[in-house]
TrEMBL record:
<dbReference type="GO" id="GO:0006303">
    <property type="term" value="P:double-strand break repair via nonhomologous end joining"/>
</dbReference>
<keyword id="KW-0238">DNA-binding</keyword>
<dbReference type="GO" id="GO:0006310">
    <property type="term" value="P:DNA recombination"/>
</dbReference>
<dbReference type="GO" id="GO:0003690">
    <property type="term" value="F:double-stranded DNA binding"/>
</dbReference>
<keyword id="KW-0227">DNA damage</keyword>
<dbReference type="Pfam" id="PF02735">
    <property type="entry name" value="Ku"/>
</dbReference>
<comment type="subunit">
    <text>Homodimer. Interacts with LigD.</text>
</comment>
<dbReference type="InterPro" id="IPR016194">
    <property type="entry name" value="SPOC-like_C_dom_sf"/>
</dbReference>
<dbReference type="InterPro" id="IPR009187">
    <property type="entry name" value="Prok_Ku"/>
</dbReference>
<protein>
    <recommendedName>
        <fullName>Non-homologous end joining protein Ku</fullName>
    </recommendedName>
</protein>
<dbReference type="InterPro" id="IPR006164">
    <property type="entry name" value="DNA_bd_Ku70/Ku80"/>
</dbReference>
<comment type="function">
    <text>With LigD forms a non-homologous end joining (NHEJ) DNA repair enzyme, which repairs dsDNA breaks with reduced fidelity. Binds linear dsDNA with 5'- and 3'- overhangs but not closed circular dsDNA nor ssDNA. Recruits and stimulates the ligase activity of LigD.</text>
</comment>
<comment type="similarity">
    <text>Belongs to the prokaryotic Ku family.</text>
</comment>
<keyword id="KW-0233">DNA recombination</keyword>
<feature type="domain" description="Ku">
    <location>
        <begin position="55"/>
        <end position="184"/>
    </location>
</feature>
<keyword id="KW-0234">DNA repair</keyword>
């Protein structure tokens, strides 16, 4: 069963408009979550804001946003002042421009959402916009208020639907040249390249969700299940031996050949 949409509005391209629904493409609802409890009473612990000087609790009505401009000095902004700079419409994805799909690097992608038509009458308009992007190899760029902030978003076709990605802000992405610029460049030995390509080919598999499974999650569920039944918690997993820092590989050729030979040996079934 598909999850309920958390946002409904309109997708607009010039004079073409259709009602759409949106839901996050990822979820953490299945993750094990913990509450902080009082060990003595077993009651949940609640958090509250307190004045950093007086230590007294602050009512929600007395909490305001402040921008620090000096030590213990702030510019106070009221909620209506912050809201005034937001987009007028928070319910219309108005596609302002298109760019080649490959021109937006992955590092700009923030959070994906599935966009679907929300009315049979608008399905044709939705399909026209989607297929137009497929045919031209373009993705749409728009702006939208999401998670209480105005965001640049990218709209790209995916199968019969559309994926809307929130994009990171310009000041959130660091320039890679500042970190990679000093790495020396040079020609690579062709024979070394053949060996490393062989090693890569031998270790290549088809991608599957199991490659990104969370082993800690499974272990926590085992402990919780045992405690529910009143059993002793499962034995603690054997800690991995402390790994020594690898020494500098002097002969890369020998290392690659040994790696390929090791990968070629048949492994025993567990």
């Amino acid at each position: 069963m598909a999850p309920r949409s958390f946002w409904k509005g309109y997708l607009k391209l010039s004079l073409v408009t259709c009602p759409v629904a949106m839901v996050p493409a990822t979820t953490d609802q299945e993750k094990v979550r913990f509450h902080t409890l009082n060990r003595k009473t077993g009651n949940r612990v609640v958090s509250q804001y307190v004045d950093s000087v007086s230590g007294k609790a602050i009512d929600e009505d007395d909490q305001v946003k402040g921008y620090q401009r000096g030590e213990d000095e702030y510019v106070v902004l009221e909620d209506d002042e912050i809201d005034a700079v937001a987009l007028e419409s928070t319910r219309t994805i108005d596609i302002e421009m298109f760019v080649p799909r490959e021109s937006i690097e992955w590092i700009w992608y923030d959070k994906p959402h599935y966009l679907t038509p929300d009315d049979p009458v608008g399905e044709e308009a939705f399909a026209v916009i989607r297929e137009g992007m497929v045919a031209t190899g373009r993705v749409g760029i728009s702006r939208l208020v999401m998670y209480r902030r105005e965001r640049a978003v990218m709209i790209e076709p995916r199968g019969r639907g559309i994926v809307l990605w929130t994009l990171r802000y310009g000041d959130e992405v660091r320039d890679g040249d500042a970190y990679f610029g000093d790495i020396p460049t040079g020609k690579t030995d062709p024979e070394l390249m053949k060996l490393v390509q062989t090693l890569i080919e031998e270790r290549t598999k088809s991608w599957g969700p199991k490659m990104a499974e969370d082993p800690v999650q499974d272990r926590l569920l085992e402990i919780i299940a045992a405690k529910k039944k009143g059993k002793k918690r499962p034995a603690k997993a054997k800690a991995a031996e402390t790994e020594e820092a690898p020494s500098n590989v002097i002969n890369i050729m020998d290392a690659l050949r040994k790696s390929i030979a090791s990968d070629s040996k048949p492994t025993k079934k567990r």
